[in-house]
Automatic annotation (TrEMBL):
One of its GO terms (biological process) is methylation. Belongs to the methyltransferase superfamily. RlmI family. It comes from the Bacteria. Residues 2-87 form the PUA domain. It comes from Trinickia dinghuensis. This is Class I SAM-dependent rRNA methyltransferase. One of its GO terms (molecular function) is methyltransferase activity. Keywords: Cytoplasm, Methyltransferase, RNA-binding, rRNA processing, S-adenosyl-L-methionine, Transferase. GO terms for cellular component: cytoplasm.
Length: 400
């Protein structure tokens, strides 16, 4: 049996049920575990701590499957974990055809993300889209795919493991069909009554920002009669929600022409009046400043940029970028206006993000009130023992 023994006192984080062990916590490895193989993890005194996946190339050397000594890691284990995850979504997620079915560590499947899309109107048999981002889930891919198909009854599974993080695990980037049919060229799903195209093969992540569902619903709820600005709009998620909520006018900015083409198609798919939507194919930083200079004003602004801080060393530069766009956001708001502002940088925590936004409000010389702290939906649970899982944070502010 492959066994990994930790250095003295390095068992503490596992006893708190944190699911990772870094290479520098390891005293010795017995046996010759291959990449992704299951190992028993023991404290220095020999006590059982967990069963985990071994990742010889990564600084995160072990990812825990189970803290239960009696639980073997086999096909039945993956079946149970996937069924549990599916049952959670069935119980907690409503009014959507786009669900995060597996959210890594929080679902006991570290390094795995799976989104489940159902076509609007129930056409087709649905589409599962997976990202395998760690050696353990890579090694159990077949069992996981079988479990996904079994739990959901959806026969179509597509892999979007074209993510650079795989290199840290010694894995190549890969995409392709894992089961069933290739993804439909046009997959249109419905969320809160609004239809969205999902580009499973080449869109961002698995094709859609499933994590922003609750936030799109909020924008939809508050958009009626308002002038809305949506920055970094991608395929128009928030823009469509605003149009669906009865916004008077929605201006959206993105530097990707392809994303904007899909956004326009989304307007059409919903039968919304295209004259209410304006799409600017441009750099958001410069465009925001130009809009301020032109004296444009809005009642609701959304700022949902890409990850400005992919790692710790980018935090300072990222903080300046967040401050820059939020400063413009505040300047563009009419009194009483709402700002929905987000960061998906794991390296910037909620406190720091709030400080940055507060600094931007001060520079804009406005009083900003936080109406609500925002995050991903209930299909993106956060393990209490694993704060690293909280990547998306947002604030809904009102200027007075
Ligand atoms: N808000 C979106 C997701 C944003 S993803 C949603 O809810 O679906 C980030 C987007 O920012 C991408 O579409 C990317 O094309 C765009 N982007 C990145 N840098 C940009 C820049 N400097 N100016 C404008 N858009 C940018």
């Amino acid at each position: 049996m492959n066994t990994v023994t930790l250095k003295p006192s390095k068992e503490k984080s596992l006893l708190r049920r944190h699911p990772w062990v870094y290479a520098n916590a390891i005293d010795r490895v017995e046996g010759k575990p291959a990449s992704g193989a299951t190992v028993v993890v023991r404290a220095h005194d020999g006590r059982f701590l967990a069963r985990a996946a071994y990742s010889p190339h990564s600084q995160i050397r072990l990812r825990v499957w189970s803290f239960d000594e009696a639980e073997p890691i086999d096909h039945a284990f993956f079946k149970r974990r996937v069924q549990r995850a599916f049952a959670h979504r069935q119980a907690f997620v409503r009014d959507t055809g786009a669900v995060r079915l597996i959210f890594g560590e929080a679902d006991g499947l570290p390094g795995l993300v799976v989104d489940y899309y159902v076509q609007d109107g129930g056409a087709g048999s649905g589409q599962l889209v997976c990202q395998f981002m760690a050696a353990g889930v890579e090694a159990w891919k077949e069992a996981i795919v079988a479990a996904l198909v079994g739990a959901t009854g959806c026969p179509n599974v597509y892999e979007r493991s074209d993510v650079s993080i795989r290199e840290k695990e010694g894995l190549e980037q890969i995409t392709g069909v894992l089961a069933g049919d290739a993804p439909a060229d046009t997959l249109i799903t419905r969320e809160n009554g609004v239809r969205y195209h999902v580009d499973v093969r080449s869109g961002h992540k698995t094709g859609f920002y499933v994590d922003q569902r609750d936030n799109r619903a909020l924008v939809q709820a508050y958009a009626a009669g308002r002038d809305v600005l949506n920055c970094f709009c991608y395929t128009g998620g928030f823009s469509l929600a605003a149009l669906g909520g009865g916004a008077k006018r929605v201006v959206s900015i993105d530097s990707s022409g392809e994303a904007l083409a899909l956004a326009r198609a989304n307007v059409e798919a919903n039968g919304f009046d295209a004259a209410r939507a304006e799409w600017l194919d441009a750099d958001a930083f410069r465009t925001l400043r130009r809009l301020v200079d032109d004296g444009e004003r809005f009642d609701l602004v959304v700022l949902d940029p890409p990850k400005f801080a992919p790692a710790r060393e980018h935090v300072d530069r990222a903080a300046r970028a967040y401050k820059d766009i939020n400063l413009s956001g505040f300047r563009l708001l009419r009194p009483g206006g709402l700002l929905f502002t987000y960061s998906c940088s794991g390296a910037i925590d909620a406190d720091l993000f709030q400080k940055i936004v507060a600094g931007a409000a001060a520079d804009a010389r406005v009083d900003a009130r936080i109406l609500k702290r925002l995050g991903a939906g209930l299909d993106h649970p956060l393990l209490a023992a694993f704060p690293e899982g909280e990547y998306l944070k947002g604030l809904l502010l009102q200027i007075v």
